[in-house]
Amino acid sequence: MRLEILLSCMNLQDEDIITKSHIESDTIIVNQCGYDGYNEYDRNGHKTRIFSVNDKGLTKSRNYAIKHSEADVCLLCDDDEVFSRNYEEGILTAYRDLPEADVIIFNIGNRPAHWGDMPKKLGYLDLMHVASWQISFKRESIVNNNVYFDEHMGAGSGNGAEEEFRFLTDCRKNGLAIYYVPFVIADVAQTKSTWFKGYNEEFFINRGNTTRYIMGYVPAVLYAAYYSIRKRHQFDSDISWFKAFRLIMKGIHENRLGKKK
Which CDD domains is this protein grouped with (predicted)? Predict the structure, then answer.
């Protein structure tokens, strides 16, 4: 099997991001920079392909990389990761050990998952806690089932995040097997987010819109209650839990993305 990292970035200035990120495998870089172009080079036997595109939107970038990948296994990546030693060997070993897995969620060293120290198959509720940096998949499984990132969501869409949850729930709906393997692949700095501007009213309204779009009305309302109460420690210095709940409900009823049920 062959692994390829799918790295999304904007206005890339320094192509040495491969060295800075400790990447030691084949890589696609999709650089959203306002013009179209292509560059390719080899480093230590690994191919790096840079696609410069005149487009915006993180999910569009992810989909572009998936469609242009030539690998058996893909790993999503942002421009603020530093990879662990032997990450490629660990990832490919996990797929050999779990041949039934279509998607494998890995661990991030400075943001560890809470699923323990043994591999496990993930259920619907587990998927709500997965970040993009953790997601790998067999490209053939994704392409053959026509599962891509929803371009109505994600950074640059104006509709907030949760595109990873939508992607994984679409994988699940198509019968793809999603596993967690407690192998640490990287650390994430995430010093500056391209979409998160704080726990303001827009954040909670967008969350209401996206959760209804993904889940439907009734589960989204239950989620609004859960999130506003159980996660209030994350935002209660900015906004009360009750106001957060009301704003999420406003987004649910606004239904900007069009999920009707």
Answer: Glyco_tranf_GTA_type
Contact 124, 169 (CB under 8 A): yes
Domains defined for the chain, CATH in brackets? 3-188 (3.90.550.10), 201-254 (no CATH)
What are the two backbone dihedrals, phi and then psi, of residue 183, each rounded to the nearest 5 degrees?
A: -100, 130
How much is the average pLDDT of 106-125? Answer: 92
What are 179's strand-pairing partners?
104, 121
Q: Give the number of other CB atoms < 10 A from CB of residue 189.
A: 11
pLDDT in tens, 147-166: 999 988 867 666 666 889 99
Any bridge partners for residue 30, and if so which?
8, 51
The number of beta carbons lying within 10 Å of the beta carbon of residue 238 is 12
- Name the nearest CA neighbour of 181 among 259, 91, 248: 91
| Chain mean position to CA 148 | 11
10 within 8 A of 194, measured Cβ to Cβ: yes
Q: What is the mean pLDDT of residues 173-193?
A: 87
For residues 98 and 15, what is the distance between their CA atoms, to the nearest angstrom? 34
Torsion angles phi and psi, residue 50, rounded to 5: -110, 115
Q: Which whole-number Å values give the CA distances from 103 to 1, 64, 94, 166, 254, in the listed order?
A: 15, 19, 11, 14, 33
The residues pairing with 72 across neighbouring beta strands, listed in sequence order, are: none
